[in-house]
Amino acid sequence: FSQVSSSSCQGPYIAVITNRNTNLGIRGFMLFSIGVFLALVLNLLQVQRNVTLFPPDVISSIFSSAWWVPPCCGTASAMIGLLYPCIDSRLGEPHKFKREWSSVMRCVAVFVGINHASAKVDFANNVQLSLTLAALSIGLWWTFDRSRSGFGLGVVIALLATLSTQLLVYNGVFQYTSPDFLYIRSWLPCIFFAGVITMGNIGRQLALYECKRMSGKTHQD
Known about the structure:
Layout: H1 2-48, E1 52-53, E2 59-60, E3 65-66, H2 69-91, H3 101-120, H4 126-144, H5 148-170, E4 175-176, H6 188-220
Antiparallel strand pairs: 1-4, 2-3
Helix pairs in contact: 1-2, 1-3, 1-6, 2-6, 3-4, 3-6, 4-6, 5-6
Subcellular location: Endoplasmic reticulum membrane
Main location: endoplasmic reticulum
Family: Belongs to the INSIG family.
């Protein structure tokens, strides 16, 4: 009798763990796909405006981008999108500010607009452009996030991404035209910060949808 009861208890438990792992994989794949798509679109803007320059032999003719850029951005997007709800759970502070898909889509639109501005809007100098993009990026966080954990993660990941980009440019993988912050443009950390906030919002919304669906199944059972 004890063996039967223990196996009956383990059955639902194992099913829940399996569902969580499956859902985590699905969310990761969706975030990876979104990151790849945004990388292709936004990098195309940068290359067309000659903001970033890749060696001719690594350029893909379809999207004017090096082959490794979309997978790297997709992987980073998946990690960020999965990390944000995990941190919220660890801190015991579920993020409830503007938790609807319409808000997430507006956040993505603003992020694309910030990238567009960095590539196509002409400013008097790079300092003015950097200050403008910094204000827009913080405004994006304030409008769609407003969490301390979101801001802190955004700053840390943006700094790490900036350092990685500096190393890539230093080693000749690609280059920026008119660099004014060592080997890169001074506004690049602002773009990274806005991107982290955007992918964090998408990841949180996907996690919220998963929680609602799982709780609905639990109630039905």
